[in-house]
Design goal:
With 143 residues, this protein is mostly helical. 57% of the residues lie in helices and 0% in strands. The longest helix is centred in the C-terminal third of the chain and has 21 residues.
């Protein structure tokens, strides 16, 4: 039963990216809530890098609304995923200031499962949450 729950959560994240607009809007609330709770303090509610904490950081906070525009009009999904997950550091920024959300989500999944989730299930949970977050960031892209 737990395994199906974790697989379902991972599948939910994938559905958020590939579903029609009407389904996407409902599922985007997960990503939006995570964004507002964990990202907006630096990146700003509008994603432009103007959050209330941004002025206290050594490096300029990226404008997330320009990711696709700065990548020849193609949203750089894999790179954004790797940065959020913690697999790719941004060398130009020096030491990593941004939280490694892949680790946070895996820890959160372990807490919710009472310690019964396998590493694969925790990975699925983390992927679903990251994909939901990326779905919301995608919605912020400048037209």
């Amino acid at each position: 039963m737990m395994k199906r729950l974790w697989i379902g959560l991972g599948a939910l994240g994938v559905c958020l990216i590939v579903s029609p607009v009407s389904g996407y809007a409902q599922g985007a609330d997960i990503g939006k809530q995570d964004y507002m709770d964990s990202c907006a303090s630096c990146h700003g509610e509008d994603g432009k890098g103007n959050g209330p904490v941004a002025g206290f950081l050594k490096q300029k906070v990226p404008d997330l609304t320009m990711l696709a525009k700065n990548s020849a009009g193609v949203f750089p999904f894999a790179r954004v995923y790797d940065v959020i997950d913690g697999r790719q550091a941004v060398a130009a920024h020096g030491p990593r200031d941004m939280q490694v959300w892949g680790n946070e989500y895996r820890g959160e999944g372990a807490k919710h499962s009472g310690g019964y989730a396998t590493p694969q299930e925790l990975g699925s949970y983390a992927r679903g949450r990251i994909i939901a977050l990326i779905g919301y960031i995608y919605s912020l892209q400048a037209k």
